[in-house]
Model the fold of this input.
Amino acid sequence: MEKNKKKGPQKDSGKESLSRRKFFVSAGNAAIGIAALGSLGVTLDFLSPKVLLELPRRFVVGMLANMQPNSVTFDAEHRLIVFRDKQGYFYALSAVCTHLGCIVEWKETGIPGHPEGVIACPCHGSIFNKTGDVIRGPAPHSLDRFKMYLEDEKIIVDMTETVSEEEMILKV
Amino acid sequence: MDSQFWRSIFRTRLPIKTNLDRSLIIFNSLAMHIHPVKVRERAIRFSYTFYLGMISFFLFVALVVTGVLLMLYYQPAIPNAYNNMKDLQYVVSNGIFLRNMHRWAAHLMVITVFLHMLRVFYKGAYQRPREFNWVIGVFLFLLTLLLSYTGYLLPYDQLSYWAVTVGANIVKYVPVVGKSIRFLLLGGNEIGEYTLVRFYVLHCVILPLMMTSLIGLHFWRIRKDGGLY
Done:
């Protein structure tokens, strides 16, 4: 009998664990938590700029008539190297080194084994071949390759996405 | 001396006669009370700590003073930043002295903080009950490096630009969130006006405030963990 009496109220108190005070405390804590999470999100949103005064990523790189076969054009503003091969096709490589972001240079004289010319990074010595593949150096992968278009005799580069070595070729 | 006027400013009563009076000078002063009233003689010997922590702290004070003065002639904008930096060197009276002092104190602080950590490590001073103060110290070291890094962009010359480009691209290699952190840090996809302002605010407000709070905690923990003995 005594055992039952003891068990009774204990069970009840177990069920009634959510007292008025406890309810308001947890409701308050939850509200503070939600407000804190929300303010974190709003702050992160505030920290990412909505309008960037950066150069457009799709632009006219030059007129078809002005870019001679077997030429290399360096666009310093957009950090881009545009090649027009002997056969007449175009392709564009990013001039930003894939190692730590320095601007690479086109070296016409090349290096031993690569007389056709190489692309070299002045910061940490990475060297890429004429189509952007790594020959040596700390660069982890080839230079970014971009899709090119021909519209009204204008050569257009789209830097919004990188493409494969085959896709980057623009035959004219 | 012990007038009503004196006593309204200084809590310590004059004349000072007993050891209790002497300890009360330390105890009753806002600036001094961070010190213990009594220390062991060997604990204040040069060879005990090489004073590296205090040297780092005073370099930080020098950096705050020179930095605040430099702020009076500096605008975090392109191309003003570079021109302001050159004006500080060649136009502003004693500007080159302040700038060099800020620069050398910054370099020295990185060195002394590092040596301080070496001293603490090799003497085993990071052991119980000082483990957490070591952790605070590691954060202070990281803050020192971050202050150096953010300050590096402010002259906005070629060296600044490329050093920060390289640094921001290192951040990019952080798994998953690397690119977002880089975007937030630079305030864009490449270094520009926003980057300069962001680094300026970090360098002049956010990081020094964090540094000051952590230095306070660090010093308080030295006392609470038993001081030097």
In short: Chain B has one domain: 51-224.
